[in-house]
Amino acid sequence: MNPDTNKLSATLEALIIASDEPLSLARLRDLSDASSADIRAALAELEAHYQGRGITLQEVAGGWQFRSAPEYAAQVQQLWQTRPPRLSRSMLETLAIIAYRQPVTRAEIEMLRGLKVSSSIIGGLQERSWIKVLGRKEVPGRPHLYGTGRQFLIDFGLSSLSDLPEIAQLMDQEELESADQEDQLLLHADEAQDETDEYPGDADAAGEAGLGPVNTNFD
Question: What phi-psi label fits residue 140: left (phi over 0), alpha (psi between -120 and 50 degrees) or beta?
Answer without folding.
Answer: beta
